[in-house]
Amino acid sequence: MEDDFFNVxxxxxxxxxxxxxxxxxxxxxxxxxLAEMCHGFADVDTDGEDEKDNFDIKMLEGIAPKEYDNYxxxxxxxx
Length: 79
Description:
Organism: Glossina fuscipes
Number of helices: 4
Shape: globular
Largest sheet: none
Structural class: mainly alpha
Strand content: under 5%
Protein name: Anaphase-promoting complex subunit 8-like isoform X2
Radius of gyration: 12 Å
Helix content: 55-70%
Order of helices and strands: HHHH
């Protein structure tokens, strides 16, 4: 699922990093917007990548990597 001009996997990775960065800064509307965009990439498979290295371990402890998109979206709506 890769285009010549747009790497979907890299975009999803950057969205997730943006979510975590904005959460740390308390930017709730930005987190909500990024989480909705990231949830749109839910069908993008990130298997084979160590997602735990890219995020705050304490925040995502006990959550399966395939559930990160749902978690981020739900948490942004809750916040």
